[in-house]
Amino acid sequence: MDRDSDGYPSSPLSRRAGVQTPSWVTFREEERASNTVLCFPFKPLRDVRLSRKDKFEMREPTTTRPVAVDPIEAYKTKVKLLETELERLNKKLEDLRRDYSRLYTRAQHSDARCTDARWKFKRLREAYEDLARVTYETYGKEEFRALKEKVEADKQQVARKRFLASQTMLVINTDDTDTESAAH
Fold first, then answer.
1. Calpha distance 153→45 (Å, rounded)
2. Coiled coil: which residue ranges (predicted)?
3. CB neighbours of 2 closer than 8 A, spacing ≥ 6?
């Protein structure tokens, strides 16, 4: 079995990765180590490679050793990120509030215009009703009926005059066609 420089057996996986792991590091210890200050549980050892002269040469590993992360700094960074996200969400919420306020104001104005139009129509209808009542009371029942009949008679007379005028035009047109056909 292959052993590392400390005398511990090394796994084929760690040999392939270029990093030798002591056998006493179990998965649980790796997990616990990754949750603590040390993020990288393996200890990189010197890399043994063949040189051009086919001699073993000791070289420093090409991978950098992981830096221990300070939990307080990590927490501060996380807090800064959360504060930035909170500011972004607050800005978005403020924009939404502004849009809602604008839409609500516009709806209130349109509702006020509708209410104003309804109120004007109601006032107009009341004015016509008052006019009809005053006319009815002023002229009395019979006079009001006579006035109404006179208006209807005038309407019928105007309609009759229009009808006769249209008939006269037809007659004139008919006479023109007869004279034209006789001329040919």
1. 119
2. 72-106
3. 9, 10, 15
